[in-house]
Amino acid sequence: MLQIKSFTFNPFSENTYVLFDETKEAVIIDPGCYEKQEKGILYDFITKEQLKPVKIINTHCHIDHVLGNAFIKKTYNIPLWFHAEEEPILKAVSSYSSNYGFAQYQESSVDHFLQEGEIVKFGNTELMPLWVPGHSPGHLVFYHQASKTCIAGDTLFQGSIGRTDLPGGDHETLINAIKEKLFNLPDDVVIYPGHGPSTTIGYEKLNNPFVGKNAVN
Question: What is the CATH number of the domain that holds 193?
C-alpha cells in the first residue's frame, strides 16, 4: 500500500514528498531541503521509518524543487530522474541561486531521462508519469492509479495553477495540458501539489478560477 509523507521546505514553501510502500523502498520527489535542519528532518524520517530510498525524481527543475538533489544523491547514492527538457533548467540554477539567497547550492546531474508513460517502479508500487508542460517545458506529474493519488508539482494547485512567466513557461500550454491530462483522471483523485494543501480533480474542475467550470481564459 502506497504511503505519502510530505514536508514543506525552503523560503518558497515547497512540498517535498517521500513515497514508500510495505517493502520500505522509497522514492523522493522534489527534495527542496536546503538548510541543515531541513536535511536533518528528512533524513531522520527516512531513518526512523527504516526506508530504503531508490530514486530521486524531479517533477521539474526550478530552484525550489531541486535544492536537496545533491544532498540526497550523496547520502543515499541513488539516481536522479526527470524529463530531458528539464536539464537546461537544472543547469541554469547555479547561475542564479545566490541571487535568491542560496549561496551554498550544490549542483546535481541527471542519471536517467524519464518519458511520459515510462512506469516508475519501486517496491510493489508503480507510478505513471504524465507530461503536463506549461509551467516548465518538461514538467511531469506522477499518477498512482490504485490509490487515486497524483504528485502534481507546479501544475494544478488548490484554487490556482502554476505560474507561467518563467523561462520556458506558457499559459495556454499549461491550461490545455491540465484539461487534457489531469482532468481526464477520476474526480476523486487527490492532487498533491508542489506548494500548498492537497485538493481533488473534481473540486478543481468545479471551482478552479483558471481551469474550472466557470473559468474565463
Answer: 3.60.15.10
Give the Å distances, CA to CA, from 117 to 38, 93, 157, 181. 32, 27, 23, 12
C-alpha cell at 73: 544523491
Q: Is residue 213 part of a domain?
A: no
- Tell whether 128 is covered by a domain: yes
| 212 found inside a domain | no
Element (H, E) at 90: helix 87-96
Does residue 161 fall inside a structural domain? yes
Q: How far apart are the first and last CA of the chain?
A: 39
Q: Give the pLDDT confidence of 180-212 residue by residue, as tens digits.
A: 999 999 999 999 999 999 999 999 999 999 998
Q: Do the Cβ atoms of 51 and 24 come closer than 8 Å?
A: yes
Angle, helix 36-48 to helix 69-76, in steps of 10 degrees: 40
Q: What is the pTM of this model?
A: 0.97
52: domain range? 3-207
Q: Are 209 and 215 in contact (CB under 8 A)?
A: yes
Q: How many structural domains is the chain composed of? A: 1
Alpha-carbon span 193 to 27, nearest angstrom: 16
* pLDDT value, residue 217: 60
